[in-house]
Write a structure and sequence with these properties.
Distance between the termini: 19 Å
Number of helices: 0
Order of helices and strands: EEEEEEEEEEEEEEEEEEEEEEEE
Strand order of the largest sheet: 1-2-3-4
Structural class: mainly beta
């Protein structure tokens, strides 16, 4: 479903999805539904012909090449190019809980049962020989699977939370290590980093909070009219969008500074993921 921030209700896009991801062009959304992958142009409304997925995938992420998407399940991963209508399969048994594309081509970070895997996908052709493979050179241990995970815009930091800890762990994506731990006293269900990378917005079981990353302190904490499913930010950073998935179904629109709800965009079903697109 899609909506503008000022809308009273969201409208259907014509594509079903259990997981979605934004392509590098900022307007194409990959929609995974069971064993089918579709792309939707949010600006024009055009929906591609669906393409079959060869694995039981639970997560999807867009590759930085702007053409293909990765889908990942408990026992395998696939790189799918909807333009060329091609699929390449890789072995992977990380049982993903969350995923974030690296700023580097063919590299992604996957939340797994032990922490965060750095998965590198390689495909190459030499003469008539074609090679492919997925390699996990390192896993960043977190003490459990991340229930929430977000990467900053520059790709240098991943923020992750493991249920039962009340802590957000900060991972350096170059050093592949935890460099800081932010205690928030409750479990994070959704995370979003502002475009200046100075604030972290945290959705919890009872509301939303804003953290100052430089000062390592909670700036503001507010309740929400429903269970928080996801958190996203407007491109200019002046609004926060919170997916509500229980008592009230919708997307709450808040000011990024004061965290005051201006209105709620009504939904007919509980949201799983929010993506924000800027276009004129």
């Amino acid at each position: 479903m899609s909506a503008s921030p000022g809308d009273s209700a969201a409208a259907t896009t014509g594509a079903r999805a259990s997981a979605i991801a934004m392509a590098a062009d900022g307007r194409t959304v990959f929609a995974l539904a069971g064993r089918t992958l579709t792309s939707v142009d949010i600006v024009s409304g055009a929906v591609s012909d669906p393409m079959a997925v060869g694995i039981d995938a639970t997560q999807v992420v867009a590759n930085r090449n702007g053409r293909s998407a990765f889908v990942i399940g408990p026992t395998a991963a696939e790189s799918i190019d909807l333009t060329q209508r091609t699929r390449v399969r890789f072995s992977y048994d990380g049982a993903p809980t969350a995923i974030a594309a690296s700023y580097k081509h063919n590299q992604m970070f996957i939340g797994t049962r032990d922490g965060i895997d750095m998965l590198y996908i390689s495909t190459a052709q030499t003469g008539n020989e074609y090679s492919r493979g997925g390699h996990v050179p390192y896993t960043v241990p977190l003490g459990g699977p991340p229930a929430a995970m977000a990467m900053n815009g520059s790709g240098t930091r991943i923020y992750a939370s493991v249920d039962g800890t009340g802590v957000i762990q900060v991972v350096d994506t170059e050093q592949l290590t935890v460099i800081d731990r932010l205690t928030i006293g409750t479990d994070a269900k959704a995370l979003a980093v502002d475009r200046h990378e100075g604030r972290l917005y945290v959705g919890t079981s009872d509301g939303l909070m804003a953290l100052d990353l430089a000062k390592r302190e909670i700036l503001r904490r507010v309740p929400m009219p429903g269970r928080v499913a996801d958190v996203a930010l407007s491109p200019n950073g002046d609004e926060v969008y919170v997916g509500l998935a229980s008592e009230r179904l919708g997307i709450a629109v808040l000011g990024a500074d004061d965290l005051v709800i201006s209105h709620v965009i009504e939904l007919t079903a509980a949201p799983l993921r929010l993506l924000v697109v800027a276009y004129h």
